[in-house]
Amino acid sequence: MIRLSGPVTATVLPDQTILGRLTSDASTPTTLRARRILIEREGVSASDRCGFAASISRGDLDSASETPLVKLPQWANYLADGDIVAITPSPSLHVIYRRNATTNSLLVTERCSSNCIMCSQPPTARDDSWLYELAISSIEHLPEDATEIGITGGEPLLDFQRFLTLLYRLKTLIPRTAVHVLTNGRLLAYLSYAQAISDIRHPDLMFGVPLYSANPSRHDFIVQARGAFDQTIRGILNAKRCGLRIELRVVLHEQSAPTLGQLARFIARHLPYVDQVALMGLEHIGFVKANAKVLKSSLSNYSSLIEEFVTTLESSGINTVLFNMPICLLPESVWPAARQSISDWKNDMPEQCSRCAIQSECSGFFSWNVDEYKQSVRPFSLAEARHFRSILRRRLP
Amino acid sequence: MIGQIVTTTESDCIVELKPASNELISEDQMSSRLFIALGDFVLRERLEHETRNIRELIVRQAFERSNLQWPDLDSARPGDDPLRFGVPDIETGRTHT
Amino acid sequence: MPFSFTRLPSQPMDATGKAVLVNQAGEHIILRMSDVTRLITREAPLDPTLMERLHAGLFVTHNPRSSGVDLVAQSVRSKLSTLMSGTELHLFVATLRCDHSCPYCQVSRVSDDRTAYDMTIEDASAGLDIMFASPSKCLKLEVQGGEPLLNYPLVHELVRAARKRAREEGRPLECVVTTNLANITPEMCMFFRDHDVLLSTSIDGPSDLHNANRPRPGNDAFQRAVAGIELVRNICGVDSVSALPTTTRRSLGRVREIVDTYVGLGFSGVFLRPLSPFGFAVKTQSAIGYDTQDFIDHYLEGLDYCLELWKRGYQFREHYASLLLRRMLTPFDTGYVDLMSPAGAGSAVLVFNYDGDVYISDEARMLAETGEKLFRLGTIRGSTREHLLAKPQFAHWIRDSMNEAIPGCDWCAFRTWCGTDQVYHHATQGDIVGIRSLSSFCQRNMAVFNWLVQKLDADDDDSRILRAWGGLG
Questions:
Q1: DSSP type of residue C45
Q2: How far apart are the CA of C55 and the nearest CA of chain A, in angstroms?
Q3: Which domains does chain C have, with CATH numbers?
Q4: Does A230 contact C at CB distance below 8 Å?
């Protein structure tokens, strides 16, 4: 999977964090160079670098450079024109935005008020407000035609004033870009939070909120936070009251499976106005490794549960999608709900998948799930692929 | 069963019962059914007593926009966290199973 | 958390017998009485899996300050929102004249006397003013009779004016005309097509049953109705006409034929209604009436037959059961005025009678034909909407129709799903509240709820079909 940040070697350190859009065009008009970072091709000279915010070299570093100059690390070989990066004084390189990625997210904090047993981004307690500052500063560099930006953490609403600042910048600088915020929703239980967000009137804003069970104790256990269920429910009610859009996210594992059907019925009855419900496959990373015994089960064991979940919600008119679940492990009736949710999985796929006829339409899975799945996935033949596509076509409005 | 109150005094209430449909049942069956039905009513009374407060709360909350149980939720200013939802349990020392 | 419970019929009358519990959000669960007792008395703990179901279903909560209270409050609020959103349905009785002499009819007159029995244009126009004063987001205009098409000029003008005004004010408006179709012409159909009017007719069953129930000169009510349906479909479209049967003693025992008639006419469902206890119907009770249990048996047999058809691939449903299932299984309002608490009469529906008076429901104006004008709100002309609804008795009728407070309803398991009808109870028992155990309205609804609950619990093919009827896919 793609790495997005790490230390770099540099000559000429920047004295503060530099942000810029990558370009390989050494003849970029000088008026634009202050906001560009040159990614060097062969034969670039010191004078070529003049005026750029920074320059990234593929070869040896030229210590005579006046422009901040770093060496492109191996892991960042994928960087291309149009990508947005940040170079910090430490020095380190952070990839903020990739033009070719299916989705881009801004990590704004690693602090969280919950402690989910399957968290893929285990929380820390450090003061990391520099992450928020970096995100806020990067908005002005993002392209106006970016289709969607995710805001993730940790818990983005913990530093609420910075969240509002970030949201306001997103609205004013890239108003045509959809914003999707992943939050536990607990702070939205305070009405003023929901109201303040609503007052910004962002034109295309959605909150992804987790709800793992209709039974409060079970949900609280999974998120390891007492009272979380009540707070999240109140948060959803407030969000609705203030006109905010909500996507409910359910991660499927051994602790959420027993009450999955119940949860679908609960949502259909009490929260039918949510904009979407996403059922997600488990990512084998972060806390999942430590808690494997209580979490893991094969996706094929859950087939009928997944079917029941999708059917219950869809028949109540609630848009339901499946993330992070390979098509070959899903029952046919739910194929139309599966989404291609993972970008860049093609880099790490098991051998069978490279022979599969629907590889380009499958969500695939994360590289850290490969070991788990390589025993059970199977390629689709051409005939099966035709059948798959005809099922999807039937479902189109 | 259909019942009709025949007489009521301070200490007694005499009720006349007859089956609602045409089924044949004995006096014993009638009286056992009556006692079971009365037992169910005792349960209902108990349930009503236990849930009286919550029922009132529900009806009041249905018509009230602000949160009656947790006024802090409505009065807190944006960024304030009086009920400490933003603090992980590890720090607050809250325990959970 | 608050809920009500009742033992299911044909269950043992002891602790092993099953009971249905229904909470204020309308969600239900079936438990053995032993568990119900344990739940209420807390004398012994319940199975943990069962407790999870009860928590998820909002039958229990960890503490009284939990989000469960907010969620149930949300349910209660949305159920009452219909009451608060203004009157949607407005009935206009175009004329009392009719060319059929159905013995079960509460109102019609075979007559040529237009002045005595036709609504005037002035009254219709004043009625429209009152209708458009309603704050309801959507409006529904329904033309009734007698046989409305016998006063076609009024129907024409009323619909034309209503559509024009709806367009000008940008308000969604649904128009329905009930008619026996015996007198419909292609010109009328084209008018209805151009003004988006839906037609509702009566088909009581196969032709012999229908014609016996609905005598007219020539004894061809059925043939005319079928020809009318075809004409309307050809000009206005297949979905522009619907039909309802009325059940008389003659209908009993023939429910399968009645359903087959509807299937044969291409309808996708049937609304099996009982006789109303009003007007003419009461007078001819002995000839065409039947007791409640007979209707219940007839109705349940009809439901079984519709399920059978569905399993054979016919996708045919019963509409009353579908309404009840929607209430039981979803949080959405059905808009069905006859089953609301507080009663829909006057709040969700208003009736403008041919003689210039305003009534709170169709049943109320039918009752008036027998001389009982208790439920009259005032005159159409010279009244505003506020003026009519300010009548003091109106507030009492609403208050006395809240089933939370009616003895018999207050502890009933099905209360959240059911409704009240003050006019019906006044007509049958002389009291707007009535004694529930004597009420056939109550008996019928209880029988159907019990049947539906047990069918859903069986978790078989029938359950799945019923869930589909309720709108769950």
A1: P
A2: 6
A3: 1-84 (no CATH), 86-263+275-288+346-389 (3.20.20.70)
A4: yes
